[in-house]
Each structure stands twice: as C-alpha cells, then as structure tokens.
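Final paragraph of the annual report: two paired records, presented back to back.
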Amino acid sequence: MSVIVEFSIATEEFVFGSALETVERMEIELEAIVPVGGQVIPYFWATGEGFEAFERHVGSEPDIESISQIDRIDGTALYRAVWSSDADGLLGGLAEAEAVVLEAMTAEEGWYFRVRFPSNELVERFSEYCSERSISIRVGRVHPLAEASRAGRLFELTPGQREAIVLAVQRGYFEVPRETDLTAIADELGISQQAASERVRRGANAVLQAALPISRSE
C-alpha cells in the first residue's frame, strides 16, 4: 500500500537545496527526480525575478554539471539540472526508494517535502539510507494513501495548492466580478504573486480535470 510521508530538512543538509540558494528572491519548487544512467536529474520550478543571475549562480556551483531552462511562463521557469554528486544524498535516496515527490519547496527553516512511497518497506529503506549517511530529516505526518481525505484522493492537490484554492474561493476570487485579486491572496499566504498564481492555476486545473474527466485532445 502506498504511503504518504511529510518531512522537512535543513537547507545546509540538503546539498542540492543549498546550491539553489541565491541572493535573488527566488522561490523553488521541486517538480520531479529522474535517475538516468546512475545520475540524478532534478526538475524544478523557480519563481521570482533575476533569472539570468540565478542561472549564473547555480551554473557556477561545482556540484551541478549543467542547468537548462525548459519552459517559462511569466515569472516562473521550469529547469532541468544535471546533478553530479548527490547520488548518495537525499535525492539519490528518494530515487532509490522509487518515491514520487508530490510537493517539495523552500520553507522558512529549510525545505518541506511531501512524498509518496510505493510501500512501507521502501519507507524503511529510505529511512535507513538517510541514517547511514547522517542525513537528518524531521518527519511530520505519515499515513497510508487510503487514509487521505476524499478530496485529496480525488483531486491530488498538494497542501499549498489546496490552501491557495480554498482561500481564493473564500475571498471571492472566482466570483463575477472578482472580489479580490492574486496580490491580496499572495499577501495573505505570505508568498509572491507569481507563486500564488501558480498554486491557484495548478490547483484549479487538477480539480477541473478530476471533475470533468476529458482527454487533452478534446
């Protein structure tokens, strides 16, 4: 049975996360981890300003072989990074345990992760992996996928997306005419306007696709 694990880790203990720290105000959200030929290749979203400076900074990190921008939507860009030395780090452990990252983003005291593991055995393997390499993670909630809320099972919303969508509905963002805007929602959530826009858009897309199951070609 699949298991959802929520945990956090200090930035200095998450080497890839440390490499993404910049002087620019950038919010980072991990999209996927892809193991290719023994390498760990992370995809992540960066939201903010100063992308060129951000790319120069990350590209200069000795542990990152390359970074390339895959797509860009307004103030958010999707990146692909080739990571040279994290095969024995946190990302390598998640890849080895066949974990699916549902949500991973920068937080006030490091990084927050919400991850789905295929089984309890793989959760234990990941825990042993971190213990053997002195990777200190702070585990929050752990629960079988079957115990998730009905809305969570149906729509597969991340906590951040659900929070943004609920607030948008409560404040009248979807009313006609609108009773609030993304700037106000972002201020209330304590995030940038671009990050709020991403969460509301992705959350709304997940809800609509679940409620109206149609193919992308229709």
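The closing record of the year follows.
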Amino acid sequence: MGNQAKDILSSRFVLFSCEGTAEGVVVQVLYDNDLLIVPRERVVKDALIVDRPYTRKRKASEIANDYFSMNYETAGAEGLAVARIVDSNAPKFEFPKRRQNGTKVLNFVTRPEIEMLVIHAEGAYRDWGNATRRDRQLRPNEFCKQRLGLGKIKEKDFLEEYWDNGEKLVKAIKAHAETSKRKNEELLLVDLLK
C-alpha cells in the first residue's frame, strides 16, 4: 500500500462504506477481531444501526448528509476518510466542493467479487482458474454455489458463521492479494490489515 493511504487510515477517523452484505461482514469481522490498521476508536459507526462499524450508504450526498455534521478533528485526528469497499473501480465518487470538508476518499477493490475470499479459503483457487478458462462468464458467486456447494453465499447469517474466525479471513485476504493483478496505486483489502 502506498504510504499516503496508510497515513490517511492511521491519522483520521474512517467511515467504511460497504457495497454489499459480504463486504459488511468482512469489515465487521476485521473490526471485531481488532485486525484493521485503523484504530478501533477512530472507526465511525453507522448512523442508524448501533455498533455497526460501517454504513451501507454509497452515495456521496447521503454520506455527506449523515456524517459531515460531526467534528472529526478531535483526539489528534486530522479529519475524516471514507473507505469504500467496492468490487470494481467505480465511477468518480466526489463530495460537492462546498461540502467536502477535507474528507479523503479511498477505494478498496475486491475484483472480480468479494466471494473470491471464500474461493481462497476453500483452497479452490486452482479449480476456479480452470473453470473460468472453460467459461469466461462464470462469476465467483456462481462458482461458490455450483462447484463448492455454498448456496447461501450471499446471505448474512451464512457469511457471519463462515467468517467467524478472523484468522481464516486474514489468510483468505492475503491469498487473494497474492493472486490479484493490482493496478497502479490500487488498494486491496489486504491494505486494511494491521
């Protein structure tokens, strides 16, 4: 990870914006097991759900409306950063200039889908590679359902039970980072780990 991103994560309050259920479960497990590079006391909690260390809000305007009224320059912090957990380099995500408030935005990409973590945890990465050579349209979640028998791969209860061990999740994140073709300056989930 670039030093700039590391500095932002360690010097600011951080709001995690998660694209989907699986991304939220990953952030929750990393938070619960104190595995994030972000100090626990600087993780911004959801505005509606008590003790949830992420929001499902993904629009810049909604995040600004719900989170920008707080003072994030306290306890030695330099302001707010929004860490977006997304499966692709999504279109520009910018706060209106008059409302930006010095907030930094970092995108952590889980390309092609976050279910790749399960494929690594199951030791099925080689099988995944073989399957995608035969079927270029095969999605990781479909592979998990069809080939690994994990039909509930998108359900929160299943994912919470599956990732109940933070160490298992960290191993999968690191394995995925090793096999990912990181684009220049791209941030991955591994960059969130201590």
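The mean pLDDT is 92. This concludes the annual technical report; the extension proposal builds directly on these records.
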